[in-house]
Amino acid sequence: MSTATQAPHRLDPSASLHAETLGLAPGRGRMAGRRIIVVGAGQRTIVDENPPIGNGRAMSVLFAREGAHVACIDINREAAEETVAQIAAEGGKAFAEVVDVSDATAIAPAVERCTQKLGGLDGLALNVGISCGLPLAKMTAEAWDRDYSVNVRSHMLFAQKALTVMAPGGAIVLTSSMASQRANGRNPAYESSKAAQIALGRAIARAGEEHGIRCNVIAPGFIDSPMGRDASRRRPDRAITVPFGRQGTGWEVAYAALFLISNESSYVNGHTLFLDAGHMGGIVRG
């Protein structure tokens, strides 16, 4: 049959699904003995009866599954404790810590407390983020400052303190977004704060280099997380061109973070990984 008469190729989303994609792969001891803080370890409550796992919870569970002792920081105690309960159910080690990261004075003491409970610190995963969702015409100084206080300032303060207590050879991971490179969402505070995280990640990498402490950034594309589902409810056309015919999962973000915070990535530093299935490179569904 000639190419002119062939039926269009139909994507099969299941072709790119694996045990790791769905969080079903067993641990392999990749983080044995490591002491990790995850900021944003809970997840928001949404209307879905069976919500997908969020990036921060997936990171926390996966790190523990791979042998780490995890401090689960979140503003919502119940959400953090649900993450800890999921880790405990798998036989892992974790505890919850409640912190409002928009309070600049709360961050350094929280890192101190977690480091003491963990018996040291080897890694920090910063996943917390918010979005006011306001377009430029309706933006207020208060909404702008709120997004930046959580999305950028808190990351700087967590990293600043962590660099004083983290063991040499440790690692820090920031979660940015594909939105850092695009204006499609008409969401300037979120988009620009996520771009700022990428520059901040390089600055942290430079500051930590003399102690062998690395910092890298993950910039996910369209992810089927609680935050992603809420965004899709606001914008039904948000993810219609996704590669592979599906959005990513929180587990896929977590596995990228696992690599970057583990010793497996010991010569990866100051890097931004766009976890978008090639969307930014033009691999999109027409």
Structure, explained:
The protein has helices at 55-65, 77-89, 104-118, 141-165, 188-208, 226-234, 250-261; strands at residues 35-39, 69-74, 93-98, 123-126, 171-175, 214-220, 272-275. With 286 residues, the chain is an alpha/beta fold. The protein has a single domain (29-281), classed as NAD(P)-binding Rossmann-like Domain (Rossmann fold). It is globular. Helix 1 (55-65) packs parallel to helix 2 (77-89), helix 3 (104-118) packs parallel to helix 4 and helix 4 runs parallel beside helix 5 (188-208). Strand 1 (35-39), helix 1 (55-65) and strand 2 (69-74) form a beta-alpha-beta unit. Mean pLDDT is 92; it is low at 1-8. It is built from seven helices and seven strands, in the order βαβαβαβαβαβααβ.
What CATH architecture would you give?
Answer: 3-Layer(aba) Sandwich
- Termini Cα gap: 23 Å
Structural class label: alpha/beta
> Strand content of the residues, in percent?
5-15%
Mean pLDDT: 92
Percent in helix? 25-40%
Q: What is the gyration radius calculated from CA atoms?
A: 19 Å
Strands across the major sheet, in which order? Answer: 3-2-1-4-5-6-7
Q: Largest beta sheet, briefly?
A: 7 strands, parallel
Q: What is the number of E strands? A: 7
SSE arrangement, N to C: EHEHEHEHEHEHHE
Q: Number of domains in the coordinates?
A: 1
Count of individual helical segments: 7
Which stretches of 5+ consecutive residues score pLDDT under 50?
1-8
Q: Can you identify the CATH superfamily? A: NAD(P)-binding Rossmann-like Domain
Question: What name is given to the CATH topology?
Answer: Rossmann fold
Q: How would you describe the oligomerization state of the chains in this entry?
A: single chain
By CATH reckoning, the class would read Alpha Beta
